[in-house]
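Dear colleague,

Thank you for sharing your sequence with our group. We've completed the structure prediction you requested, and as agreed, I am returning the results in plain text so they can be pasted directly into your records. Please verify that the sequence below matches your submission; if there's any discrepancy, let me know and we will rerun it promptly.
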Amino acid sequence: MKSLIPQFNPRYLYDEAGNKRGVLIKAKEFEKIIEQLEELYDLEEIKDIEKKPQKARSLEAIMAEREKRKK
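Please find the predicted structure tokens below.
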């Protein structure tokens, strides 16, 4: 099974005291992380939409409403 977590090789930047202060990763690795975050955001949006009750209407009702708006 393919891991959903992208594999990357970060390089850490340290300050004079030896504390991690930053991370360097390749641009392609960064783009992959951003792409997966966007997909996660999209899935959350879909879940939110699915939770909301949907009101079904007939095509005729929708067309009649559109006609009223044109006038």
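Summary note from our side: The chain has a mean pLDDT of 87.

Kind regards,
the structure core
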